[in-house]
Write a structure and sequence with these properties.
Layout lengths: L9 E7 L2 E8 L6 E5 L10 H9 L3 E5 L18 H15 L4 E6 L1 H12 L4 E7 L12 H4 L6 H6 L7 E3 L10 E3 L7 H6 L4 H9 L14 H4 L12 H14 L2 H8 L1 H7 L12 E6 L10 H6 L2 H5 L3 E6 L5 H4 L1 H22 L1
Parallel strand pairs: 3-4, 3-5, 5-6, 6-9, 9-10
Antiparallel strand pairs: 1-2, 2-4, 7-8
Helix pairs in contact: 1-15, 2-3, 7-9
Length: about 350
Amino acid sequence: MAAGGAGEVRHWNAAVNGVSLHVAEQGPAAGPAVLLLHGFPELWLSWRHQMAALAARGFRALAPDLRGYGDSDVPADPAAYTIFDIVGDLVALLDHLRLPKVFVVGHDWGSQVAWNLSLFRPDRVRAVVALGIPFFPRGPRLTEPYAALGDRYYIVQFQVLIFLAASITCKQLGFGWQGRLFTTAGEPGRAEKAFGRYDVATVLKKFYSIEIDELVAPPGVEIIDFLQASSSPLPWMTEEELGQFAEKFQKSGFTGPLNYYRMLETDFKLTAPWSGAKITVPAKFILPKKDIGLKSFGTEQYVKSGDLKANVPDLEIAIIEGHHFVQQEQAERVNTEILSYFEKFITSEKASA
């Protein structure tokens, strides 16, 4: 594809699937569309480097704030954050744009969403690139891998939310660990209360500074208290950019994003029809060498053993330098990996036309 100017980022909202989604767009409207899906705790802005690179090569980059984030709607009900709701937003967005099929890129939670969009609606995906989070087929009960870590594990802490009952056991919720939740209607969830001890920029910087393998706090410690924010500016994010993220999270809060974790058990039940299913669309997985969970989650072994390719038969793998927020930290390398992969499809389609 011929290179051209990236152009300005355009912002708009669309009413889709019962919510208003904010979308940032860059590149020619007639170019091949690329849907960019951010993770936690991020926004469309996480893709600023990829959007410019894609647009400069003639692609149409579309980066929504997922529901619960930024300038998109933040439904109050935790049950509005199932994987069906999130993927449903994207299918409705494609319908709104009259795009029958798109390229998809995801990072962190966005990778989970990208894999599930590819699983549920392969007819809408030309090819998918996932960063950091590989596709895991539905297998044993969701909570089993981290039940032994119990209350110290970040996902367990994130899952504690508001209940009308004064007390409910964690076992009743299927979290796989013992204990009781003491919450009252109107109180913030556990993680929100812990996050509230810091200003929003510090909360974000604590996550963006992560360079450890396991997100497990010492006994009796909240994960946000355990994480350390870099004392100096991040090398891959300006203070102005951090301020842009903080401004949006100050407005929309963290409850919507945390509700994604709170619906994991529900997602497991909803996806029963896809038990054992494989990803059939062409896919590329980008694994940062210093990402979270390479050892503790078994990600590295799963990828290098060939088990991932068994579940995603049409797969390419790129192992690159970097930590978790790799599309920002190693922007040029990630841009090259994405562009070289997608442009093969464009070239092939032109040759067969």
